[in-house]
Each structure stands twice: as structure tokens, then as C-alpha cells.
Amino acid sequence: MTHSGFIFAAWGIVLAVLVLYSVHLVLRGRSLTNAVEPEHRRWLDSGAETKGVSHPPREQP
Amino acid sequence: MWHDVRLIAGKDLRIEWRSQVATGQVAPFAILVLVLFGFALDADTVALRTFTGGLYWVTVLFSAVLAIQRSFALESADGNRDALRLSGIEPAAIFFGKATALVVQLVLLEVLLGAGVAVLYGPSVEDFPLLVATAGVATIGVAAAGTLYGVLAAGLRVRETILPILLLPVLAPVLIGATRAFDDALGTVAVNGWNWLALLGLTAVVYVAFGALAFGVLLEDS
Amino acid sequence: MSVVHLRAVVALLGRFPALAGVDLDVESGEAVLLQGPNGAGKTSLLRLCAGLLAPASGEAVVLGHDLGRDRRSVRREVGMLAHATFLYDDLSVYENVCFWARAAGGSPAEAEAAIARLEIDTRLRDIPVVRLSTGQRRRTSLAVLVARRPRLWLLDEPHAGLDQAGRDIVDGLVRDAVDAGATVLVASHELDRTRTIASRVITIAGGVVVADQPIPGRSMPVGPAPERGGPDVA
Amino acid sequence: MSPAEVTSTGSRGTRVIGSIVLAGIVFHVLLSFVWSDPDADQGDLVRIMYVHVPSAWLAYMAFTVTAFGGVMYLWKRSLWWDLVAGASAEIGVVFCALALVTGSIWGRPTWGTYWEWTDVRIVTTLVLLLLYIGYLAVRRIPADPHQRSRRAAVVGIIAALNIPIVRFSVDWWADRTLHQKATIKLGGTELDGLMLFALFFGLILFTLIYAWMMIHRFRIAWLDEQIDRHGLDAAIAERLAESTSDVTRAVGLTKTGADL
């Protein structure tokens, strides 16, 4: 294979960046999930709860 | 609407006339950049003539950033943006008013820079109408995009840095188009400058139209 | 219909809840004194009523405009005196007043009249405001307000920085406004003075209304008035 | 699954997509390096195209999603759309940077230079990258959620409006283009079947990677909002506590005033 250095460099950079970014996402997701109270980890409900999020519904003082 | 546009533009120009920031700081800065290009290119007259169009427009863009920052510094001073919001003037009218004032200032700056370039770089003009039309249309594009991003940046602590990083990439087509049209008008590159002018016109139309629509969204928040 | 009608209004400055659930009704023709410690939310309440600060939740209706939906319409009808002067430093007194008057649809003649009403020295009329004293700038800001002829006056510390004559002019402006059927909200620490023009005192602390008392006969000495709202103080 | 069991931004959906992607990457490597042949013109360098072209396409697609999210935000005023726009822009910037890097690595042996100014796409892509770096900078400026969203929406839409203008102007500016004018001719014979398949497979694979990243990135943004929001609830509670502690003093003030 000709120019193998360039080809592997290109593929290597792509795979490395994608893997690193994915790992970063997963780790950040884990730490954030643990920082949020279990009852608020609600994105699984999709739709209703997340759409139209504006500001917290408040309890009256 | 027209009344408000004139009111805002008149106010900005009057303040500029009084404070002399544009003439005392922005214009000298622009000339300084021209001189620096001369140093950077080793006073090579051939190179300076060849790249006159590009150097001229880069200088205009840098100076425009300063003028835009100045234009919105007026409104950030002492809560005047709040006052503008309270005035009940249509955001689109404020947009057109401030953009008009910027166009006037930039045109004057461009005339001055043109004189500076003529003296310092010594290019020859082959198509004067094209030169003037290009400057006019490009200036409208710069002023429209600049007014929109100016108000976005105005209220932020990071306004000095965020404005150029947002504005200069969207003005890349203006830089390219105006430079090429100038290249034709100055006879340095054989291209059809009038086609480039059409591209500049399209860009200006997009920025003016979107700016008038989006200005209110940003004025509310910045 | 109340001029100001707020129910459980929360408003944020960035992430900070400047207003944390305000309930308030102000009727047409009232002059209301807002008092409370620094950082209580007085200024935020005025800015909210001016349509400058968005309600994050709750119900906020001012001059018939629902601020949750439309904050722009109300602005034409209110006049706000803020800590900032809202003046352009390089323009003269006349030019500033004239600019804001014309922006509100007024005429240069109204600007002249407003400057006269504030008794600004005619020799200062054409001097850039940057060269004026704080008190004169304050008067210029008030002249802008007068020229705009608002239905709801929102005054944040209107007496600050003014001399005795200036303070009397402010009091006169408030009385004239109320007589003309306008409504006035005054945030002030100068209780003695403001009590002579207000008909009701509202106490704000921690972003909520904690007390709301009428001032019967205004400046006449009276006993503690019954509370009209706010959370239980005891 | 009850919320308490959720310990990451992963879910059954992402795990399924993730597994397919992992298998797909193996398949794509085999397809690109073993099963497909060198191109008649580009030789083995065509193998770079199997990651370069999908990266570039995904960058454009991600930026389109950002602009669409911005429009939907301004229309619906729903933070959900803003978070979608922001998540997509960040991933778009990653793909855009990859497209640039792989493009210029391809350019070195092809043109003899890493950067060729007369090449339209590479210059356009650089301007695009700068536009969206600006977009992400705007998003990072601290502000309340809706302020940030409105600014971001406007900037995202301008950037998208700019894509065709930049493309067009750079196209004219670089009088000639060194890029293969038409890498893929529909029904043409420039690329043989397997090479064409490798390109399309790369595109599908990268789209799946994008989807996987989007789900995670969106959930991260959403959790960030949750933290802010519940921080806000705490702040409101604190502020109310402040009001009750101030009450005695404040009401004391009132009464003194009333006694005058």
C-alpha cells in the first residue's frame, strides 16, 4: 500500500478523536448523573417533562 | 419607523461628532494599519500594489470592529440599552438607525483610507464606478452584520473578545468579494468585478434582512 | 383592573432569584412606597414592572399587559427613573431630553417644558451632561420622565443626589402625577420624606413582600396599621 | 427502569447503537483496507476518503440540525430544542475538525502541501469551523437559560445562512479547484461498486456515531440544566429564608415609620 503513513495517520486521528470524545461524553454523563438527585434523572421520560422546560414550577411560600 | 430610524442615526452621528472618537482614534488606527502593512511587506511597492484590495479591506474590517464596539459602548454606558428598550422604539428601527450611522462613519473612513492607500501604495484605478459601488455595498453588509453582533456582544463582560470572533468569520465572504472586485477595479487581477459585486449585494441583503428580524431578539437579552 | 397585578412572581438575575415569589396589587392613582434592606429586590421589582426584567414564573400583569407574553407594549406607558441616568454623556441636557421625548412620540416643545418643570438652570441647557453635577444629571433624567408623560411612574431612589429644592420638585412631580390619574411606585430609603407623598408602604425582604400597610392621612401620625398580605410575620 | 437505577447517560438505546457502531467500525476497516481496491487516480489514498467524506457530511448535517434547533427554539421557546442545537453544534465541530485534518493529510501526498488555498472545500470548511467555534463561545457565556438560548439561536441561524454564501464565494475565489469535481457521479463509473459502497457505509456508520453522541451529549446538557435548576430551587429557598430573617427588622422599620 502506498502512502500508508498518511492513510494510517488520517484513520488513526479520526478513530482516536471519536473514541476520546465518546469516553469524555460517557464519563461526563456519569459524573453529572450522580450529581443529580435520582428523582430528577428524568430524561428517560422524554417528551412531556423535557419539552417546554422553562423554569422550575415553584411551591408557594 | 422612518422617524425613529432618523432619530437614532442622528443621535449616534451627533455623539460621534461631539466625542471625536471616530476621527481621533478609529481613523488614525486605520492609517496605522496601512503603514504596518507597508513595514510587513518590506515596503515592496509591487507587492503593495498587487495586494492593495486585500490590505485595504482587511484594514476596513479591523477598523469596523472598533467602530462597532464604540457604537454599542454608547448604549451600554449608564444603562442606555435599558433606556432604548423602554423607549418603545421598534427594534428594527433601532437596527436600521444604528446601521445607518455606522455606514456613514465607515464610508468616511473608507474615503480617508482610499486617500491613504493612493498615497502610500500608489495603485492605479481602472474602473472607478466599480470601486465606488463595491465600497458602498460592502459597507452595508459590514454595518448590518456588525450592528447585529454588536448588540449581542454589547451587554457581555467578554464583549471585546467575542465581537471579532463572531463577526470576522461571517464577514469572510464580504472580504473575499470586496477584495476581488477591487482587484478588478484596480486592474491587478483579471476577474469580473461586477459578478463579485452581485455576490456582495446578495450578502448585504441577507444580513440586512436577518438583522432587522433578529435585532429585537438580541436587544431583549443582551 | 389593578395597574400592577403580581402573583407568585419569580424573576432571575442570571441564576439569582431577585424576586422569589412576589404578590402585589396596586390600584390606579395610588402612590406606593417600597422599602426594605439593600438587596431586598426593590429595584428588580421596578424593573419587572417596567418590562425590563422577565418574570420566570408566576402571573405578572402591568397596565393590562401580561408580562409573561409581551414585555414590549408596557414600556411605552411606564416611566422609569433608575440608578443609571439613561443619558448620553456627549449630548446636552436639551438634546438628551429631546431625543427621549421624540422617541416616545413627543415634541421638542414638550422637552422644553419638562426642562422648565425641573427648574434646570437655562445656562446648563446646552452643556453636555458629562460636565454636569450628579444632581443636575438626576434632574435631567427626571425631565426625560416628565416629557414621556407615563401612566405608571417607577422611581428608584428619586431623592438620591438631589438638593432640597430638587427633592421638593420630585415630591411635586409625584403629587401631580397622582392628581393626573397616574400611578407611582417609589423605592426609597428616605422614609420620612417619601411617606409624605405615598399612600401605602410595602416592605420587601429577600425577594418577597413581607408587609403591606396603608398610610391613612399620609403624613399624619398614626398607630401601626393592620397588615394586608405577605407571609405570616410571627 | 426507575430513575434511581439510572447511573449514566447510557440507556438501552445507546447500548444498541453503540454495539452496532463497534461492529460497524470493524466492518468499515475491513471494507476500506482489505476488500476494496486502490482507486485508479488516487491510488491507496482513496482510503482516507472513507473517513474524510463522512466526517465532512456529518459536520454539515450537524450544523443544519443546530440551525433547525435554533429556529424551533425561537418559534416554540422550548429549551429542549436549544439543548439539541447546542449538542449538535459541539459534535459538528468535532466532525468538522476531523474533516479538515483528514483533508489536509490527504492533500500532502496529493498536492504536495497540507494546505491548498485554491481548494474550495477545505477553505470553506475552515471558515465553517471558525463560525461554529464562535457559536460554542456564545453558548459558554454565563447567562440565564433563555438569554443564552436566544443568543445561540440567532448566531446558529446566521452561521447556517452563511454556509451557502461562504461556499459560493470561496468557489468563485479559487478560480480552479483541485478537489475531485465529482467524487461520486450518480450512475457514473468513476468509483467502482465496492468503493462507492465503502463511502456510503462510512456515511451510515458516522451517522450512527453522531446519533449515539447526540443522545449522550443531549442528556449531559439536560443534566446540566437540572443541576442549575435545582440549584435555583435551593437559591429561592435560601432567598425566602433571608426574607423571614429580615422580616423582624423590616417590619420594625415600618412601624417606627408609622409612629412618626
UniProtKB/TrEMBL annotation, chain A:
The chain crosses the membrane at residues 6-27. Keywords: Membrane, Transmembrane, Transmembrane helix. This is Unannotated protein. The lineage of its organism: unclassified sequences, metagenomes, ecological metagenomes.
UniProtKB/TrEMBL annotation, chain B:
It is found in: Membrane. GO terms for molecular function: heme transmembrane transporter activity. Its main location: membrane. GO terms for biological process: cytochrome complex assembly. Keywords: Membrane, Transmembrane, Transmembrane helix. It is a multi-pass membrane protein. One of its GO terms (cellular component) is membrane. The chain crosses the membrane at residues 21-41, 53-74, 95-122, 128-151, 163-182, 194-219. Belongs to the CcmB/CycW/HelB family. This is Unannotated protein.
UniProtKB/TrEMBL annotation, chain C:
CDD domains: ABC_DR_subfamily_A. Coiled coil: none annotated. GO terms for biological process: cytochrome complex assembly. Residues 215-234 are annotated as: Disordered. Keywords: ATP-binding, Cytochrome c-type biogenesis, Nucleotide-binding, Transport. Residues 4-231 form the ABC transporter domain. NCBIfam families: ccmA. PANTHER family: ABC TRANSPORTER ATP-BINDING PROTEIN, ABC TRANSPORTER ATP-BINDING PROTEIN NATA. This is Unannotated protein. It comes from freshwater metagenome.
UniProtKB/TrEMBL annotation, chain D:
GO terms for molecular function: heme binding; heme transmembrane transporter activity. Residues 19-174 form the Cytochrome c assembly protein domain. InterPro entries: Cyt_c_assembly, Cyt_c_biogenesis_CcmC, Cyt_c_biogenesis_CcsA/CcmC. GO terms for cellular component: plasma membrane. Keywords: Cytochrome c-type biogenesis, Membrane, Transmembrane, Transmembrane helix. GO terms for biological process: cytochrome complex assembly. Belongs to the CcmC/CycZ/HelC family. This is Unannotated protein. It comes from freshwater metagenome.
